[in-house]
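Handout, section 4.2: multi-component inputs.
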Amino acid sequence: MSSSWPLWEVFVRGKRGLNHVHVGSLHAPDAEMALRNARDVYTRRNEGVSIWVVPAEAITASSPDEKDPFFQPSGDKVYRHPTFYAIPEDVPHL
Amino acid sequence: MNADNATDSVYDGLVDQEDAHWAFGTGFHEPLAGVDRAVPDVDRADLTAYCLMLGDDALVLSQRLAEWCSRAPELEEDVALANIALDLLGQARLLLTRAGEVEGAGRDEDALAYLRDEREFRNVHLAEIECGPFAGGDFATTIARLLVFSSWKLAQYSRLRGSADPVLAAVAAKGLKELAYHRDHAAQWTVRLGDGTEESHRRMRAGLHRVWPFLDELFTAHPVELRLPGVAVDPAGLRSEVEDVLAEVCRAAGLELPDAAPAARVAGKAGRDGVHTEAMGYLLAEMQHLHRSLPGAKW
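Output:
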């Protein structure tokens, strides 16, 4: 039966979290049941207040093979960080 | 979750607290904190018996649902049924504790759950009958039982919220949210199976036929319930509400309501009187044997 049920990725927002975070995956025949299964499998210890489920096949992921061309070029571009500005003292939260 | 983004984990909220046993203590609260535990001015033996009726319903069905652990058709459903079983166990603990408190004979929840014999249990037959995973049915039968039980309990607890016993009222208020989910879970599956394949429809139909004879007992008042006006709920008043819910779910599922004769009573007695089906002794043997072999065992 499992083999015929598609895979879903589960994202949960914790009580004090601002954003939904990936917590795992599960099998379910449709979105409605995926949401319920996620509730039962991933929030049974008081972890969350909101759940998203996304069909795993709807996620396009970067490939580990492309890791270097994808991410290494940004590793030495310190000038891309806006750290060279003088910040006025009366600007909070920066 | 790898180390790089560990700070993003929703589980962080669980471990950054002082309570080392994070799996059991993360912002949880005592379910009946602040509830007045005064015993209303009624016959104590009657109130004790009523608490046992409610507590045993929950305890025995919890035990039945726990039998599905590792045997459900899907891992996700395995966890779902276990969650429901644990919700009911939580209700049973509060109710049996209250029964012991009102009785005043020094029996705690464990003594009542593990050291009473079959004739002292007051749960309805619907909770104890076998509905799978072993004898008596399959997953659909268990769903049929859960649908009937949770629809009935929901109606009962919604009235019990106004009970003159503050503890029963608080247990009912807390349990309503849990039961609403149980009923929703069962209704979802009833519709899926009833409106699914020919085979799933056949099984769901058979499941409803299996549990239907035990419906009548749910609405048959016991003298104890009638002697506690204002404290206990008269189950006869729940029938039309529950039957409406069941009819609506069955209609959505494309299933006909079973037309089954009520299960026979023994000289007019049934579960509320301590008269049980042949399945009950086996259930208790499994549930109680550890505690009876090793009194007070903990792990």
